[in-house]
Design brief:
This protein is of the alpha/beta class and 321 residues long. The protein contains eleven helices and eleven strands. The structure holds adenosine-5'-diphosphate and 6-O-phosphono-beta-D-fructofuranose.
Length: 321
C-alpha cells in the first residue's frame, strides 16, 4: 500500500481535525502518501483533494470544525454514486481510505468496502449514536459546551425565578439531553426514548417551587419536541415564568476538549495501522477503555441504545423524566 485517502463527512464535531492530523502523521510515518478529500464523499466524486504533508495538519489539534470540510452527499447513497466513487479512487491510485463521521458516513464507508476498496472508519458525531463505541469524537467537547451554557443560564434563571426550557441537539438520540441533565443538575429531561407527561412535570415543578426551588432547568432533546412546543404545553401547569434557549450549532464547534483530542489522536493512528495491516471494513471503537476494531456490518446492523442505568441515575439525582 502506497497511497491512502482521508475524509470527514456528515455533521461535523470538534475533534475531527485532531483525527485528520493523526491519520496524516501516522500514515507519513508508515511511508504512505495521503490525499485529503474535500467535503466528504463529494470530494471523491469531484476529485477534489489535497495532498497532505506534515505541515498541512499543524496547528489544528485544538480547533473545532474540519480543515477538509464536511458535507452531506445524496449521490453517494446511490449504487451509481458509489461505483463512480470507487472508479475515482482507483484512478487516483488510492489503495485505502479512512472515513471520519457518524452513522450515515460509516454506511458510505461500508458501501465502498463492499465494492472492494480497503476502508476503515472513525466514529465522529456529537450525538454519540454510533453502535460499537462507548464514545464518538466530539461528544465530550459538546457536553462541555452545553454544561457551560446551562451553568451561565442558571445564574439568570435564579435571579428572576424562572424556568428555562433548553433545547439540545439529538434528532433520534437523547444522549446529550440525559448526560447534560446529570452534569448540570437539571430538574427535568425530555428524550425521544421515553414518553413524557408534561402535565405531571409541570405540577411537580410547581410543587418544588412552593418548597423553595424557584428556578428550573428543563432540557429537551430536539428529537423529543421543540422547546417552543414544550413551553406552550407547560405554561398552564408550571405556575412560574418560563423562557427558552435553543442552543443550536454552538454545540458542534469550539476548542476541542482534552478527552476528544486524545481519543481522536488514538483512533486516527489505529485506523491507519489497521489499513497498513491489510484490514478493511472495520471501525475503530472505544469499548470499556480499550480500542477495538468493530466490523462495519455490526455497526450497521445494531442500534446504539442509551444504558438504562443512566436513566436510573438521573432519576435518583432528582431529574424528572
Ligand atoms: P452522519 O455521518 O453524521 O450520520 P449523515 O447521515 O447525514 O451524517 O450521512 C453523511 C453522508 O454519508 C451522506 O450525505 C452520504 O453521503 C453518506 N451516506 C449516508 N448514508 C449512506 C448510505 N446508506 N449509503 C451510502 N452513503 C451514505
Ligand atoms: O448528527 C449531528 C447533528 O448535530 C444532530 O444532532 C442534529 O440534529 C443535526 O446534526 C443538525 O444537522 P445540520 O448540519 O443539518 O444542521
Amino acid at each position: 500500500m502506497k497511497r491512502i485517502g482521508v475524509l470527514t463527512s456528515g455533521g461535523d464535531s470538534s475533534g475531527m481535525n485532531a483525527a485528520i492530523r493523526a491519520v496524516v502523521r501516522s500514515a507519513l510515518e508508515m511511508g504512505l502518501e495521503v490525499y485529503g478529500f474535500i467535503q466528504g464523499f463529494a470530494g471523491i466524486l469531484d476529485r477534489n483533494y489535497r495532498v497532505m504533508d506534515s505541515s498541512s495538519v499543524s496547528g489544528i489539534l485544538n480547533r473545532g470544525g474540519t480543515i477538509l470540510k464536511s458535507a452531506r452527499c445524496e449521490e453517494f447513497k446511490t449504487d451509481r454514486g458509489q461505483k463512480e466513487g470507487l472508479k475515482s479512487l482507483e484512478e487516483l491510485g488510492i489503495e485505502g481510505l479512512v472515513v471520519i463521521g457518524g452513522d450515515g458516513s460509516l454506511r458510505g464507508a461500508n458501501a465502498l468496502n463492499e465494492l472492494g476498496m480497503k476502508v476503515t472508519g472513525i466514529p465522529a458525531t456529537i450525538d454519540n449514536d454510533v453502535y460499537g463505541t462507548d464514545m464518538a469524537i466530539g461528544v465530550d467537547t459538546c457536553l462541555n459546551t452545553i454544561t457551560w451554557a446551562i451553568d451561565t443560564i442558571k445564574d439568570t434563571a435564579s435571579s428572576h425565578e424562572r424556568a428555562f426550557i433548553i433545547e439540545v441537539m439529538g434528532r433520534e438520540s437523547g444522549y446529550l439531553a440525559i448526560m447534560s441533565s446529570l452534569s448540570c443538575g437539571a430538574e427535568a429531561a425530555l428524550v425521544p426514548e421515553f414518553p413524557y407527561d408534561l402535565e405531571k412535570i409541570g405540577e411537580k415543578l410547581a410543587e418544588r417551587f412552593k418548597e423553595g426551588k424557584t428556578d428550573s432547568i428543563i432540557i429537551v432533546a430536539e428529537g423529543a419536541a421543540s422547546a417552543y412546543t414544550i413551553q406552550r404545553k407547560l405554561k398552564n401547569h408550571i405556575g412560574f415564568e418560563t423562557r427558552i434557549t435553543v442552543l443550536g450549532h454552538i454545540q458542534r464547534g469550539g476548542v476541542t476538549s482534552v478527552f476528544d483530542r486524545t481519543l481522536a489522536s488514538r483512533m486516527g493512528v489505529e485506523a491507519v495501522k489497521a489499513l497498513k495491516e491489510g484490514k478493511s471494513g472495520v471501525m475503530i471503537g472505544l469499548m470499556k477503555s480499550k480500542f477495538v476494531e468493530v466490523p462495519f456490518k455490526e455497526v450497521m446492523e445494531n442500534k446504539k441504545k442509551i444504558e438504562p442505568k443512566l436513566f436510573d441515575l438521573a432519576r435518583i439525582l432528582g431529574v424528572i423524566l
